[in-house]
Amino acid sequence: MYPHTPSQHALLLHPVKAPGKATVARILPDPVGWKEQCWEPWELEAVLASAEGQTDTYLSQNRFRGKRRAVAQVQKLCGLFSDVDYYNVPELRGLSPEAMLAKAMERLREKGLPDPSLALSSGQGLALSWRHTPVARKRLAEWNAAQDRIYRVLKPFGADPKARDAARVLRIAGTTNSKNGATVWVLGNASEKTYRFEDLVEALVKNPARQDEEEHGKPGADLYSLAVQRAARGLRNHPQGWSEVSLWEGRLTDLQHLRRMRYGMGPMEDFRDRWLFIATTAVSWLVVPEVLDREASALAEEVGGWDERRARSDLSQVLKRARRAARGETIEFMGREWDPRHHFRNETMIEWLEITPEEEREMVVTISAEEESRRKRLRDREYQKRRRRAKGVATRPQYDENRTSSFRKRVAAARQLKNCGLSTEQIAERMNVSRRTVQRWLP
């Protein structure tokens, strides 16, 4: 059933027992301005109970850890979306929301994309969303590729390039857009379907129709390099084909785990600047450039207590390089053209942060050649064990048990022959063992 109130909309996106926190945001009168807070899903009904008719109220589409809405804090990816500002396209400006949705659905089907689960009239434009089974942030590379595909298809209709990151908030059904006083309401001809994430990726990213030249600005996001493959070789259960994006997501996960191992959730006592530089570099590969400043500031405030001004100053090189990449610029190094964003080797990260061999064992991607060799030996050992089991070779406990059982049977047989009157020599000859062995068996 389509949601009509803010609480119903929140429950549809974030079920009561779902893990992670959702963000509710509002634009309040000056001097407060933008205000947001993360809530557990079970709290949303009470938080939004009086939000119907409220102006400029927004809800995150995905869920997060901790107190901040940021891509670096994503816990569960729950849906894809597009904010279609068709009022910015002169020939579409006068269309009704229903007519615009019909045109958007026609284009989506023409390009082989599934129908959206939910379509809202946001007061001036359309907000389309594709709900899917929740997945962990390690699938962010696939999620970003699918999100980018939707954006490219709907770009001629005014899709907002800034509304593509996993930490985005969109308007809530039943609230009001203060720009024109219009109510945000649900349009009734979306699919209402919750897709399997794998099915959405298959339809959006692996569909042959995505090769249309009109949608592809540049192929760099989908290219895989041997360097990336080598850097990610130690990862367990990694997806087929590694990209720079999926590599950096794994590294960001490692960095956050390293921080928790060393400092818990408290402030970082050392390595803070280096950690932030590498972590912000990781984020620069995971988000669109339009939101990188916000992401960098959130990360710097959480880890280092920096204000926005200091974050932009100390992390300026990372931010500048991301903007250059967004403009399509490249740099030349060793006779090859490279994306201008920073490319770290695992060894460099381990050296900068002085990651110990014990800590490396807790890492997923950020490991040295020695740790990679250790893991390979373990994998080979496990492979050989599985191979022996498949051939019917007994395990060591099974072998010992069988040997003990056989020994007891032979001792019992020797004693039975002794009771029948046979001599030690006769028993040894009959059982094909030495005389001394028979003597050890008999009492």
Low-confidence stretches: 213-230, 233-240
CATH class of the largest domain: Alpha Beta
Mean pLDDT: 87
Gyration radius from CA atoms, angstroms: 31 Å
Q: Rough shape?
A: elongated
Whole-number total of structural domains: 3
Main-sheet strand order equals: 4-5-7-6-11
Query: Major sheet, described briefly?
Result: 5 strands, antiparallel
Instruction: Find the count of extended strands (DSSP E, 2+ residues).
Output: 13
**N-to-C terminal Cα separation, in Å?**
83 Å
Helix content: 40-55%
Pairing-aware structural class of the strands and helices? alpha+beta
Tally of separate helices = 17
Reported CATH architecture of the largest domain: 2-Layer Sandwich
Short summary:
The protein has 443 residues and is of the alpha+beta class. The protein is built from 17 helices and 13 strands. The strands form four sheets. The chain has a five-stranded antiparallel β-sheet with strand order 4-5-7-6-11. The chain has a four-stranded antiparallel β-sheet with strand order 2-1-3-8, with no helix packed on it. It has a two-stranded antiparallel ribbon with strand order 9-10.
Task: Describe the 3D structure.
There is one protein chain. The protein is an alpha+beta fold and 443 residues long. It folds into 3 domains: 6-217, Alpha-Beta Plaits; 226-367, no CATH class; 396-441, Orthogonal Bundle (Arc Repressor Mutant, subunit A), CATH 1.10.10. The protein is 43% helix and 14% strand. The chain has helices at 6-13, 44-47, 97-110, 140-154, 197-204, 226-231, 244-263, 272-284, 292-304, 308-314, 316-326, 346-353, 357-360, 369-390, 396-419, 424-431, 435-441; strands at residues 22-28, 33-39, 57-60, 63-64, 74-84, 118-121, 126-135, 169-171, 176-177, 182-183, 185-187, 331-333, 336-338. The strands form 4 sheets. It has a 5-stranded antiparallel sheet with strand order 4-5-7-6-11. A hairpin with a 4-residue loop joins strand 6 and strand 7. Helix 8 (272-284) packs antiparallel against helix 9. It is elongated, with a radius of gyration of 31 Å. 35% of the residues are buried. The model is unreliable at 213-230 and 233-240 (pLDDT under 50).
